[in-house]
Amino acid sequence: MSLTSEWTQDVGGTATKLQYHATPGLLAVGIDEDSAAGPGVVFLWASDGTRMGTLETTGSLQRTEYHDRAELVFAVTDDDHVYAIDPETADLRWDTQASAVAAATDETVFLRGGSTVWAQDVESGTRRWRQALPDTVYGGSTYVDGTLFVQVGEWQDEGVVAIDAASGDEEWYYRPGAAENVLVGDHGIYIAFDDEDRETELASLNSTTGVEQWAYDTGRSYLSAEPTESAVYLRKQNTAVALNPVTGREIWTSEEYYDFEELLVEDGNVYGCVETPDLHDYSFVRLDPDTGRTLWEIDLKNQTWSTAGLTADDGDVYVGTDDYHDDEAVLYRLNGATGSPYWEFPVDETINDIAGEGDPVLTLSSNTLYAVDTETGRAAWSFADESLFVNLAADRRVVLAGSGRQYVLDRETGAVEATIDTDGPVTAFDGALFEADGSLVTASPVAERPGAFGGVAAEKAGSNTKVYDDTAEVAGETGVYDEAADSAADGNPDAGGDTAEAQNTTSTVSFCPNCGTDLDAFGDVNFCPECGMELR
Questions:
Q1: What is the DSSP letter of 231?
Q2: Cβ(268)–Cβ(255) under 8 Å?
Q3: Rounded CA separation 210/205 (Å)
Q4: Is 23 exposed, middle or buried (0-12, 13-18, 19+ CB in 10 A)?
Q5: Which of 381, 421, 387 is nearest to 402 (CA)?
Q6: Model's pTM, two decimal places?
Q7: At residue 37, does pLDDT exceed 80?
Q8: What is the pLDDT, as a whole number, of residue 174?
Q9: Could you please report the per-residue DSSP string of 129-190?
């Protein structure tokens, strides 16, 4: 059975690009310059395919961008032209020669081209100022509190220019040489160095003056900096470090582990993959962002390669490993609060991606997508093709890009509901699949209630993927952790302990994940003496 479409619209010319913007609910369709109607852009309401209008352009569409503060959609073409479009009417408000939109506010749009940046009025497009930069733009541009920060230079010789957003005057220019990365954001401005003179160093700039506030030497190691409002987290040789963002002084240093292979920071949560003194043995740890103490730790069979759910304190954390030092890679489902494992699921190759939201959980190796039952950890189904890539994993369907084609699969059963062989563009966002075949653009539901359609549901269909028997011994059979041994620790009612022999890999927590009480002084306890939380 084929996938049931929500709507189809003829755009009058061969479609070359599809770009969806959830706000304000627009689908921008680029029209081939060789078509009678091209080059141009057709704007459709994503909800029902209603044609809002057509923009004639002088070049082929490269991309469209929606800037919410300016409330404008910008179309950028390959002949360095930028068009400002009213998203409510699809009418052209103004256009100009430019390579890109650098940033936008509710009053001003900042444009750039070559080594020049300038400002234009949001409503009229009137130019307010124009400023020559000391070098060509390299990297991004960021607007923060009345200042436009523009990254310039080249690889391993980057710099940043601060420009007064109201006047266009250059406030300062910082380019010390040998800078290999510039991080500009709401949490500050940081420059990473890696050369013989400065070795590996992280410097913080004063956003008002451009003067170095502090510099921190990390030694000769790869620098991975993750700045937040409260700290800057980075790897220093074999350990993880948290720095005060104002002074650059160490808040804490985690020296408990042999080697930090990877440091992950998500919404203030700090995780890491560490190698143990016994080479090729690894652990996945969660650290307290304020103290650096280990909240929990679990042994892994290989090095971390993919993760999901790192922001969920009380939800699930999924960790996928590579297959370098063992015969198989493994997907782990962990309790986010305690690190207790629910199950582990082995696959043949390195795990490249994980879609942890929804049931079943999806994990992708290079050529195979596995669907894993969230409760039991058993394989539900698998799908194989060369060079697979997950475009969208919704609660109802999965959109995959394979070798020269795309597939739409039922998430529960793995049934192939559609195979897309069109040479036209295909994109999937906000619970909907948009595809173009010649001049016809079709929208179909992927989620049960696609946000792109305003919550419209559609009918299910299909069948034809390999499904595993729960009782059979198959590749990808899962070791599920015994409920009596592990589930009491995390209060998980779903960790089925009756499907496999218990695995004794749970790590003992060193302090209470609920109140932070140091548990080392109390010996081997099953609950926190201070708050009463069950620990295992």
A1: -
A2: no
A3: 5
A4: exposed
A5: 387
A6: 0.81
A7: yes
A8: 94
A9: EEEE-SS-EEEEEEEETTEEEEEEEETTEEEEEEEETTT--EEEEE--S-EEEEEEETTEEE
H/E/C letters for each residue in 338-396? CCCEEEEEEECCCCCEEECCCCCEEEECCCEEEEECCCCCCEEEEEECCCCEEEEECCC
Q: How do 40-45 and 259-266 pair as beta strands?
A: unpaired
Question: Residue 121: which H helix or E strand, with range?
Answer: strand 116-121
Q: Is the separation of the CB atoms in 205 and 213 below 8 Å?
A: yes
Measured in whole angstroms, how far is the alpha carbon of residue 354 from the centre of its chain? Answer: 12
Token couple for 171 = 């406030």
Percent of the chain with pLDDT over 70: 81
Cα–Cα nearest to 368, from 347, 341, 395: 347
Question: How large is the average pLDDT for residues 316-331?
Answer: 89
Angle at 413 between CA 407 and CA 416, to 5 degrees: 25
In whole angstroms, give the CA distance from residue 508 to residue 33: 64
Average pLDDT over the chain, rounded to an integer: 84
Give the separation between CA 499 and CA 478, rounded to whole angstroms: 9
Q: In what order do the strands lie in the sheet with 147-154?
A: 137-144, 147-154, 157-164, 170-174
pLDDT of 497 over the 50 cut? no
Q: Residue 236 in contact with residue 227, Cβ under 8 Å? A: no
Total number of residues shown for the chain: 536
Q: Is residue 51 within 8 Å of 42, Cβ to Cβ?
A: yes
Rounded-to-integer distance, Cα 202 and Cα 217, Å? 7
Q: Any idea of the CA torsion for 112, 116, 118, 124, to the nearest 10 degrees?
A: -60
